[in-house]
Every structure is written in structure tokens, then in C-alpha cells.
């Protein structure tokens, strides 16, 4: 699975690189604008170790932010599934917060929390949690009539059992949403680092752009893609383990 995902990314990456070179030679652009393949390779070897460390720094923050987003979306989704005023209020607050562009909110976050880990983590959570929230509210708000009817009739239903039934019956959707949202966590972390942070691969990309060094940017993009592919593969493996265990428990029952 990991081998296939990395191969897919490498194919996409080199396709993009090929398009970039086609533009370079079609418009007769200088190496200062778009560097040659040899320069990209030399730059990549020179900065690889430092950028690899930066990517791991970014990925660590992204993973933590992703986990926080899952917990937050689960909590808000459980409350937001209710048709009461509390559920409506929670959904309204969540939607209104997401309506503000992150580039408008980020300066406030950096002023209050500085340019360290807390700001990067908060921005990653803010970008990542909303798609999770929408999916969780949709899944947890939809009754599983065939199963829930029995517990309603026998008066054994409660909110914990209701959430459990709906989550288990939509396990594939939940795992897909969680895996897909992981890329948003990485993107959110890189955006935070690019705006004003002092560490991570986003910060390195910002420095490279200030220096008009496209070779470093391309190296950073390659390492970001590899690390993201690795994280998504781990999530998919965990998801398959959960589904297999769930299917096994259903068969035993």
C-alpha cells in the first residue's frame, strides 16, 4: 500500500516537473526563473537533510492537530446532531467561525500566541476540523432505523448507544473522511509556518521564495508529498484494522 501510494505521488510530481520544464523551454525562460534539472538535483542533495528535519517537524504538528480536530469534531458532532436549541447553537457557532478566512484570523493568533508551536497547531486544527465536523454531523444525525427501532421499542435507547450504532454503521465513511482530512492538517500547518512561524518546512519555503530559489521549493514539495503519503498510508492501515475488527465482532454476534 505504501509502495503504491508513493509511486503514485512520484508520477504526479514528475508530471508536474515535466510541465514546468515545457513552460521553461517554450517561453525560453532563464535558469534564474526556472532552474534546470541539474541545478534542482544539486540543490536537493545540499538541502535534503535540513529539509527532511523540517518536514518531520511539520508532520508532527500536523498529526497532533489532526488528532485534536478529530476529537473536537466528534464532540461537536455528537452535540450538533441534536434537533434541540443546543444542537442548533453549536452548529451555528461552528459555521460562523469557519466563515472567517484563515489569513484574516492568523495575525490575531500570532499576536496572542506568538510564532511558536501553539499558533501552528491552532491554525492546523481550524483548517482541518470543519470538513470532519460536517461529515460527523451528517453521519450522526441520520438514524439507522432498522437497528434503532428495536432499542426504541424496548426502551433501551440512550444517546451513547445511538451514537455507537450510527458510527459503526457508517464506519467506512468515517474512516474515509478522517484519512482525507489528514492532508488538510498538513496544509494548515504549512500555511501557519509560511505566514509567520519560525520553524517547519513552510518557514523554509518562505525563505526560499524570498531568495527566489525555486530549486529549494521543488525539493520541499517533494519531501512534503513523500511524508504526507506515509501518513495517509498509516491512517489507511489503522482504518483497515478497525474495520476488520468491527466485522469480526459482528460475525461473532
Helix content range of the residues, please? Answer: over 70%
**Rounded Rg:** 22 Å
- How are helices and strands ordered from N to C? HHHHHHHHHH
| Beta-strand fraction estimate | under 5%
Number of strands: 0
Helix and strand composition category = mainly alpha
State the end-to-end CA separation.
31 Å
Largest sheet: none
| Average predicted confidence as pLDDT | 81
Runs in which pLDDT lies below 50 for 5 or more consecutive residues are none
Number of H- or I-type helical stretches: 10
Q: So what's the oligomer here?
A: single chain
Estimate the global geometry from the Cα principal axes: elongated
Describe the structure.
The protein is 85% helix and 0% strand. It is mostly helical and 253 residues long. The chain starts with a helix and ends with a helix.
In short:
With 253 residues, the chain is mostly helical. The chain contains ten helices and no strands.
Topology, element by element:
Layout: H1 2-26, H2 37-80, H3 85-98, H4 102-113, H5 117-141, H6 145-153, H7 159-169, H8 171-195, H9 201-210, H10 214-252
Sum up the structure in keywords.
0% strand; 253 residues; mainly alpha
Amino acid at each position: 500500500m505504501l509502495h503504491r501510494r508513493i509511486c503514485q505521488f512520484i508520477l504526479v510530481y514528475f508530471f508536474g516537473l515535466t510541465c514546468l520544464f515545457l513552460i521553461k523551454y517554450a517561453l525560453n525562460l532563464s535558469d534564474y526563473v526556472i532552474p534546470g534539472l541539474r541545478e534542482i538535483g544539486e540543490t536537493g542533495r545540499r538541502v535534503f537533510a535540513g529539509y527532511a528535519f523540517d518536514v518531520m517537524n511539520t508532520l508532527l504538528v500536523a498529526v497532533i492537530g489532526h488528532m485534536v480536530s478529530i476529537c473536537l469534531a466528534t464532540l461537536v458532532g455528537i452535540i450538533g446532531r441534536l434537533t434541540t436549541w443546543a444542537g442548533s447553537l453549536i452548529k451555528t457557532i461552528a459555521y460562523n467561525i469557519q466563515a472567517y478566512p484563515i489569513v484574516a484570523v492568523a495575525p490575531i493568533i500570532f499576536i496572542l500566541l506568538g510564532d511558536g508551536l501553539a499558533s501552528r497547531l491552532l491554525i492546523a486544527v481550524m483548517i482541518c476540523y470543519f470538513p470532519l465536523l460536517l461529515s460527523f454531523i451528517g453521519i450522526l444525525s441520520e438514524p439507522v432505523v432498522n437497528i434503532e427501532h428495536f432499542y426504541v421499542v424496548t426502551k433501551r435507547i440512550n444517546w451513547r448507544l445511538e451514537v455507537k450504532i450510527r458510527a459503526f454503521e457508517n464506519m467506512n465513511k468515517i474512516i474515509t473522511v478522517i484519512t482525507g482530512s489528514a492532508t488538510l492538517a498538513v496544509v494548515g500547518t504549512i500555511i501557519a509556518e509560511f505566514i509567520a512561524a519560525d520553524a517547519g518546512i513552510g518557514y523554509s519555503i518562505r525563505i526560499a521564495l524570498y531568495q527566489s530559489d525555486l530549486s529549494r521549493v521543488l525539493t520541499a514539495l517533494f519531501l512534503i508529498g513523500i511524508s504526507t503519503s506515509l501518513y495517509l498510508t498509516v491512517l489507511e492501515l489503522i482504518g483497515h484494522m478497525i474495520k476488520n475488527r468491527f466485522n469480526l465482532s459482528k460475525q461473532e454476534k
